């Protein structure tokens, strides 16, 4: 065994301590997550039946389910995605491809600010601008509120992902006589696509857990949604309503609904992973 | 290295000065100045590149070789805050005149970069890209034919013929660079600019690229930037020596490497600085 100098020993000790610390932090972070997930699973599984997934809510003591909330959440997410994702991606492209001037800096600043706005503020804003004007709650207003949260997230991820595409690819395409827009659409976007899709889906996963903006907009409903012009149920609002109720049965249903929501978010993530696995890398 | 002159024997016969002088001019640059912001990178460059010849640019790092190469297809336009003064004529037409079409220019003046930059697409799609965007193939059959032709010209066809649909990123470094050459050749440019195309390659891949350059000269005018003086001697007809943004000397490669006119050139070539 070679003898170690003092500096060597110190270095090894520091390295050992640091490695242990980072490992501990990782265990702590992942551990808490596992505790949360298993607790929800434990509490939720008891009320989770096949019927629960398809039935509409019923008065206390009569069972009932969250079918309408699942459909409502899906509708709201679809609506917010249809509005928010294209706008977000387009804005991100603008910022990364043409975003050199003062205006772009202003847009970038506003988008950052928008990301930081508490979601309840977004809800109140949509309430004031849309719900009050229409003088009733609606799925439409809920979708808009969620879209407003989606847009800045998608914008920033799109911009970041496009910036990660090597500059040499852009030059390579330009050198072949490609006009700017074809470079962006044909080379840059496909190269950034999996990152952008991941960002978009993370935004969807994020808004799927939002409750506050929906309280003042989509409001909630005890029936399956028929059109976007009336109040619409959602998993999060349903969970909220059941959780603050005084009934044990509804508490159990809230846990089960939470489990369903988690499962939905998990499946969104898995689907995205599957769809965006890199074909050319 | 010897102190008087280097003894680099070109692998192939260098054309005599007379035939160089009689070749028609393809690119004519006069009094070119180039600025990155306030920094002047190129100083009063005047040089002619004859048609269907290979001209090599040599010089130490940061001397402006690459910047100059990139002025020839206006690739520097992409970099914000740059400015060009002077004239660059290709076939007698000023490429910096306000009405000049950059897209058209780049179709005519292809470029191969220092670091190979295949698109994250299949091998076929990489070569087909330029043909598609410039609508150079009338139908799928013509597209396939021209992709094949370009890959053959770039001496890559036999290696990739059964894997055209696989990712270009799965090729080796040397193959990727030849793919980029094929991509540039596919749209049949008239001039090919090469920015140290072999700097990241091993000797075998390098010699393949060099053979290719000598071969391509029959059809194309080629301008190549290289750090490797032996490479300049092996592949080029003319050599231009840059130093600190100035063009010190342009001469036939043979003369440049045996009896250069300028003392600075000799010092650089014999390794006294650089």
Explain what this protein looks like in three dimensions.
The complex is a heterodimer of chains A (281) and B (274). Chain A contains 11 helices and no strands. Chain A has 281 residues and is mainly alpha-helical. Chain A has one domain: MetI-like (MetI-like fold), CATH 1.10.3720. The radius of gyration of chain A is 24 Å and the shape is globular. Chain B has one domain: P-loop containing nucleotide triphosphate hydrolases (Rossmann fold, 3-Layer(aba) Sandwich). Chain B is 35% helix and 24% strand. Chain B has 11 helices and 10 strands. Chain B has helices at residues 17-22, 65-71, 102-108, 123-133, 140-153, 157-160, 173-186, 203-216, 229-235, 253-258, 263-269, and strands at residues 25-36, 39-50, 54-58, 82-90, 93-94, 109-112, 191-195, 221-225, 238-243, 246-252. Chain B has a 6-stranded mixed sheet with strand order 6-7-8-3-9-10, with helices on both faces. A 4-stranded antiparallel sheet of chain B has the order 2-1-4-5, covered by helices on one side. In chain B, strand 4 and strand 5 form a beta hairpin. Chain B is globular, with a radius of gyration of 19 Å. The interface between A and B is medium-sized, with 22 and 29 residues.
Q: What is this entry, summarized?
A:
Chain A is mainly alpha-helical and 281 residues long. Helix content of chain A is 75%, strand content 0%. With 274 residues, chain B is an alpha/beta fold.
